[in-house]
Amino acid sequence: MRYAQIILPLNLKGSFTYRIPEELMPSIQPGMRVLVPFRGKKIYTGLVFEIHDHEPENFIPREIISILDEFPILPKEQISFWNWLSEYYLCSPGEIYRFAFPSSLKLESETYLKLRPNVAVDFENLDVNEMYLIQALEVRQLINLTDIEAFIPKKEIIKTINSLIDLQYIEIDEKIAEKYKAREVAYVKINEKFLNNHDLTEILSKLNKAPRQKDLFLLILDKQTETPSAYIKKSELFEAGNFGSLHFKALVDKNFVEEYYLQKDRLESYEGEIEEIEELSESQKLAKKEVDKAFEDNKKVLLHGVTSSGKTHIYLEKIEECINEGKNALFLLPEISLTKQITLRLEKKYGRQLGFYHQKLTDFERVEVWRKIKNNDIQILIGTRNALFLPFQNLGLVIVDEEHDSAYKPREVSPYFNAKDAALVLAGFYKAGVILGSATPSVESCYLARKDKLKYVFLGERFGDVKLPEYELINFKEAQESKKVSGNFSLHLIDEIRKTLDEKNQAIILHNRRGYANVVECETCGYVNYCSNCDVVMTYHKSANEMKCHYCGQRASKPKTCPKCYSENLNERGVGVEQIHEEVSKIFPDSEVDRMDVDSMRKKFAYEKLYEKIEDRETDIVVGTQMISKGLDFDHIELVAIPKADSLLYVQDFRAEERAYQLITQVSGRAGRVSGKGKILIQTYNPDHSVFQLIRINNVTKIYDYFLKERQKFHYPPFTKLIMIELKHRKEEKVNRASQFLGSVLRKYLPEECVLGPERAQIARLNNLYQFQILLKLPRGKNYEKFKEMVLISLNEFEEITAYQSIRKAVLVDF
DNA sequence: AGCACGCCGACT
DNA sequence: GTCGGCGTGCTC
């Protein structure tokens, strides 16, 4: 066993072979971090994936420099998980490594310069920059590349360094610095040897001439005697404001007071009271029993609980059982904003045993969670998808809440994976139980449940016997024909809103389109405002008074006249949420109407402020995008209106109907949570559309029957497996050619009907990159693995063409 | 990925 | 003539 396969934090295929030096042989193990040289002098933190004895044939391996960990930092379950991820999602282990580890745990060496020993520098022949650098190096032996920017213009740095290296005056050195530093907090105490009456009186009399110091001393003494076990923070002494650090320093100098430091967590943990959870209702108890039974049979559970049925209660019970067995639980949520409420609920019960992990933590905070998980200091972790990679020691339960949510598989970050599916696999390696929970499960999960791959548990009653909301479809076409409309609202819809307001209740209006108008168009010449980076029309945002591209974020001012023909007849087309908000405000001038979308929630605490406003019932109507479907659990919302429901269906995506159903159902769940008299109004031109009809009768089985039938008919998942390959490049010609080539290679290995495209992407150019797509529709089951092998072969063949190496490629498995 | 090497246009 | 642009090649 003299060689190790090492993963490097680079987007490179596969792993690299290094030789293990004799002295490291006894201690090296898979899952440990090591320092390895890679390409010249550069040093990376690699990860040992495998130890073996196969001598490489085509190259001479280099040696591992040193081992960074005493014990493997990555448990063996995680190593298996990574292997599965890279095979299933066709991504490199390096990508996973980069994604999984906080950057402080995978440091790269930094390049330093130093003078060569015993050189005589001939200053006469140096230019100014070279002279500066030599002089700087004479003062401080090592200089970091970024420090050089302070005295040499950026453009000339490389030239200067290269010329000094040629002259053999300086050389390059690589150093790895530990970046993570524990946070230290200063504490104070009275010097112990003076802690007796005699000495204390003496000190106080000595301090008579310095009253401030005396007061400070007395304050410390006071705090210390009051609770001798407590630690006194230095910072709290100055809160009163009468003392400065000078007074404190004087006391320290006189040796009366001691200052000391303790390492402190960056993550605040809950210190309040610990609360018990409420008892389960009858139907919850039944559901819980089914979950228990499934776990006994080693089956994973799909918990389908209608809105406010109390899925969380069941989660809590299972978590409790899990940690009572001495195991850890992982609670996954699709996004950070949702972690807050569940955290509030859990920390009352579990206090310090609870941790969180998500994209908003700083790097050092992530390292601290890593260490705590590694040392088993945290029993329950609440997190987003990246929490799957924490080094759990004995994971016993994984909960994936809102399992249908598309945030579990964002398209734009690599490695591309669906956290819901990955959670199932990870739990498998740990032999942990899994609960996928949702009020609107994904069609895929429902299919698995029907195939008995998941145990289906249905919770159809709201907690406390509260009734489910009622649905009503409003035929907008009819309303228009009988002239019973005002703008985008039928008079009936307006009446219903008014009724709700009159009863002092609140209403929610959903319109899932940002901005004020989709397009600003010139009536005279037809000009529309395109984004300069993308092939997309820019959306008009009235409140910010600008045009925005929703794909690259570019902003432009709104044209007053047509830039092409100077006509002033500019027409706004396509209704956005801002316009709906404006309309509602005009219809109900005496009501408080607020808007909730990413644009209005951008400011700090905007969300919190609006949340409080709604809670205090200062807000009467909330108009918003899909954002309002999540987390707004209030007691007095009785009406949900969707004035332009058709727009939810007209999206080019085979999941559009499923998404529409999920969004409508989720937002409906906000209504009548306490009264049981919630009402949902869906205004549409097509009240006969199957999706709307099925939502109205609210029959869960029939809805999924319908979705599954449609998917089967058009050969979409879960009946087939999809792989999307996207190619991007600045030059359209080049990607076009490349994608044609890749398409032909794929057709060589796969049946014709499996390969769709290549085609220009729906957004042909995004951020100045032209995109082409090839969609692979592969059969499920045994053949899938074979076909995927073929895809891999095709991709390798494609990569061998050097001209296509500059083309960016994304492979999205289970797209 | 990122860094070095190598080949062509815009400037002193 | 050079400087520096980026296309290409390679890393255990």
UniProtKB/TrEMBL annotation:
Q: Which Gene3D superfamilies match?
A: P-loop containing nucleotide triphosphate hydrolases (3.40.50.300), PriA, 3(prime) DNA-binding domain (3.40.1440.60)
Name a GO molecular-function annotation.
3'-5' DNA helicase activity
Transmembrane ranges?
none
Q: Where does Zn(2+) 2 bind?
A: C531, C534, C549, C552
Q: Which UniProt keywords apply?
A: ATP-binding, Coiled coil, DNA replication, DNA-binding, Helicase, Hydrolase, Isomerase, Metal-binding, Nucleotide-binding, Primosome, Zinc
Q: Where does Zn(2+) 1 bind?
A: C522, C525, C562, C565
Q: What class of enzyme is it?
A: isomerase
Q: Which catalytic reaction applies to this protein? A: Couples ATP hydrolysis with the unwinding of duplex DNA by translocating in the 3'-5' direction; ATP + H2O = ADP + phosphate + H(+)
This entry's Enzyme Commission designation comes to: 5.6.2.4
Pfam families to which the protein is assigned, alphabetical = DEAD, PriA_3primeBD, PriA_C, Zn_ribbon_PriA
The record's section on SMART domains has: DEXDc, HELICc
Under the cellular component aspect of Gene Ontology, which terms does the record hold?
primosome complex
- Coiled-coil ranges (or none): 267-297
| Cofactor: binding comment | Binds 2 zinc ions per subunit.
Q: Helicase ATP-binding domain: from which residue to which, for each copy? A: 292-459
Q: Which cofactor does it need?
A: Zn(2+)
Going by the entry's taxonomy, the superkingdom of the source organism is recorded as Bacteria
Provide a GO biological process annotation. Answer: DNA replication initiation
Q: Quaternary structure?
A: Component of the replication restart primosome.
- What family name appears in the similarity comment? Belongs to the helicase family. PriA subfamily.
Task performed by this protein: Initiates the restart of stalled replication forks, which reloads the replicative helicase on sites other than the origin of replication. Recognizes and binds to abandoned replication forks and remodels them to uncover a helicase loading site. Promotes assembly of the primosome at these replication forks.
* Name of the featured protein: Replication restart protein PriA
Organism encoding this protein: Chryseobacterium defluvii
In the record, what lineage is assigned to the organism producing the protein?
Bacteria, Pseudomonadati, Bacteroidota, Flavobacteriia, Flavobacteriales
